[in-house]
Structures are given as C-alpha cells and as structure tokens.
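Entries read sequence, tokenised fold; example below:

***
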Amino acid sequence: MTDVNSRIEAAKAEIASLKEQIDKAMAGKKDQTMSAVVRSKGLALPNIRGPPATKLRRTLKGHFGKVTAMHWAGDSQALISASQDGKLLLWNAVSTNKLKAISLKSTYVMAVGMEQSKGNLVACGGLDNLCTVYKLSQPDNDQEMASHDGFLSCCRFLDEQRILTGSGDSTVLMWDIPNGVPVETFAEHKNDVMCLAISPTDPNCFVSVSVDRTAKVWDIRDSKAGATQTFSGHEGDINGVDFMRDGITIGTGSEDGTARVFDMRAHNEICKYGKVTEGEGLTSVSFSRSGRVLFGGHADSNVLAWDVLSDKATPTFTLNQAHEQHVSCLGVNPKGDALCTGSWDSTLKIW
C-alpha cells in the first residue's frame, strides 16, 4: 500500500512539473500585447461610443420573478426571456410589446434559447433536468427531452433539427429534436457546465465553460475525440462565454471578477480584464458585432465594457447600476445595434 501511495505522489509531482513547463512555454509565446500590435501597425482606432451615446432605450416589464436568461432572435428585433415566475416571454424589443407568453411546468428555469434561422422554436430548462422545446405557433404541444442527471444551464439550437444543452452533470448533449433523443455526448468537464456558445463561422464548432474553471472547444462531428482545445487561467467558476464574429476568438467571464479573451490560433489567453476578487463576479459576457468591445454583466448590478484592443484592465465605460439587482444575463443582438440585459429585478433593458 505504501508503494502505491508513493507512486501516486510521484505521479502528482510529475503532473505539477509538466503543468509548470507548459505554463512557461505558453507564457513565452506572449511576446506582444494587443495595444503594442495596434501601435506597431500605426492604426488610428475610432473612439468607442460610451455614455451618453450608449444609453437606456427600452425597459421590458412583464415578469414577476427573477429574470434568469435571455436570447435574441435571428432578426435582431425579437427576444425570448425566462424568469422564475414560471414564464417565457417573447418580446418585440423595438416596441416593447409582449408577443407571446408560455407558461412552464417548472418555475426553476435557468436557460432559454431561440432557433436563429426561422425563429419558430424556443427551448428552456432548469432544475427539472429537462430540455423542453416549444413551437411558437403551437406552444401547448411541447416536447420534453430527458437524459441529463443535473440541472440545465444553457441551450442553443444548431438548427431546427438539433440542439445543444449544457448541464450540471458536467456534460453537453446534442439532441435529435424530432425524435427527442441525445445523439452525442461531450463529457470532459470535471464540474457543472455553465454556458456554451456556437461558432458563428463554423456550426460544427462550439465552446463550453464550467465550474472547473476551463473553457473547452469541441467538434460536434467527433465527440469521442474529446475537446479539440482547452483554455485555463480563471481562478473561479466560469459563468459566461461568447464567440467573436471571426469564429476564432473566445471571451469568458468568471466569478473571479475577470473577463478573458482566448485565441484559438495561438491556443493562449491574449487579454485579461478586471482584477481577481473574492465573492460574486461576472455572470455573462457578449462581444459587440465588431469585436472591439467585450460586455460583462456583473453581480453588483453594473454592466462593464472593455476595449479588446487595449491593455487596460479597467473598463472603457461602465453602465453604473444598470439594474437594481444582480445582472443575470446579457447579449448583443446579431445586427450589433442593441445590448439587452436581464436582472433579478425582474426587468430586461435595451441599450
């Protein structure tokens, strides 16, 4: 038994040594900062539009519980929101009209997603461990899909036939919607999967983030091969992730209070914003359409905006007290002209 324990300790020491060597090798590749590259090319960057140009345009009121998730439709006008009042609300973000309300069987909803090409399907899930898909034309004919052993944290449609779901059971599943069965399992995270994002340039590629403090990139065509890339660096749970429109740059937001940008070509972290803090931090992140700005929703009710081409850890601007309570979700619409934030104060706001 003593021999086995000594071998285990030796293996742990070897792993730590190898990790240290990898970290040194990756640190050695960070030979340039984003602002240094901009200066070397002599680029004249336009100013970022912050307040007062960026200001509150609409407030969407209608929920009577904490808003936990939202997702824009592909047309950049409609959006779907989920709340602990047990309702999904479909909104026209321009007129603020409620287009449809769907009553849920479970009030503990944590995730919502809308199909992007036609906008006829929405999906949701939460502590019921189910992914429930609704046709907006026939919301009473819902389809419940069960396989996860933990809460549903995120769901995103690949198309009208397939959807990805992330769960507290540490897996991501790809579902065949018409048959209601999982067809692929992505199981490499060591703790709850909190969020996922599909590449805007390659629908076969997606990224998932987890309480295990890693972001993993996957190819849906070969789940058995495991993650194609793994990014680490955060010192707390990673709660949010988004792809830049180039499909090769990933932004993450963590409970450690920092947002980070990773590049799939460099296989490395290229930017870090904010400072590591204890307690609640970022809940969600989203890139502007150009990729110049990374927005982060914070548990302190603020929305932070960082300049990706700057080395400054501090935000370029902050929407102070954007909500009265915890900002739980946010997203920039596909057209890039509006940011929606959702909060525990039961409202959504369009900026």
Summary: Residues 256 and 278 are 6 Å apart (CA to CA). The helical segments are 2-28, 34-40. The mean pLDDT is 92. The longest strand covers residues 138-146.
